[in-house]
Amino acid sequence: MAPLVAAGETVCRAAMVKLVAERAVAKINLFLRVVGRRPDGYHELDSIFLPIALADVVRLELRTTGGRAVRLLCDAPELGDERSNLASRAASAFLEEFKIDGSVLIQLEKRIPVGAGLGGGSSDAGTVLRMMSRLTRIDEPSRLGVIALKLGADVPFFLDPVPARVGGIGEEIWPLKSVPSMPLVLAIPSFGISTAAVFKGLKPENWNGRAPEDHTAAANRGEITPAIAINDLAIVAEREHREIGELRALLNSLGARAAQMTGSGSAVFGVFGSTADAEQAATAASVRWSDAKFIATKTAASTC
Predict the structure, then answer these.
(1) Annotated catalytic residue, options 46, 154, 232, 277
(2) Is 154 a catalytic residue?
(3) How many Å apart are CA 201 and CA 264, to the nearest integer?
(4) Does domain 11-174 have CATH number 3.30.230.10?
(5) Mind listing the pLDDT tens digit for each residue in 74-97?
(6) pLDDT by residue (tens digit) across 17-42?
(7) Contact at 8 Å (CB) between 118 and 112?
(8) 75 catalytic, yes or no?
């Protein structure tokens, strides 16, 4: 059994209970372009992932007593199934991979909308893997990456969520060095979208292929234009939900430098010139569109 010793967490020595809490940040896809399709059916992508301030809260308790077990408490009842929730699956996969006997309790406060393309479930899973690694002092990034990819294509990014260009099916990650923080408005409609359904409806003629390198250079300068903010999945999502295109148009009319759907939808983001502009746009959008939630937030800046 691997040693359960770590620095920095709260420890109750008598019962050998270790507690830790972290924010599980959401992300937007500044662009998302389809490069090709693999023989196994997975699409290869070219994207820039930007973590944003919106986040779930994950609290994790690890006990050395008892057998190998994972329990999940979630404030969203529909996400409380331990067999399907990515956070609890991540904890179980970690215990199994590293042959650790212990029981894990996860308390999950959901703030990231489900089915919005913001990566909430994947972020919860990546955050749990980071926390388990920290608590057990297991520093094996390659094995952690394998676990993450088995859980989902976006999960490897959330092991260390920094602005990055992402390729393959999500396992190829190149951190970007100088991306500034950018004010955003998120437009979140009342419906979610199935990622599987969007990819099923995607046609090769809608693939834009790999982005020009100057798009990454512009992102590193914070110079975002509509030509950069391309999402090959948007055409499929908008075919079923015209509201997505209408929300993009609304954010553009309110002064967004660029607006686009993120991931496989349904959320739309708009990049604004200042925090004040974003806050004003979110307020104005809420007045004009009652059947959606508008959140003024910002992307994280590069730290490397």
Answers:
(1) 154
(2) yes
(3) 11
(4) yes
(5) 999 889 898 999 999 999 999 999
(6) 889 999 999 999 999 999 999 999 99
(7) yes
(8) no
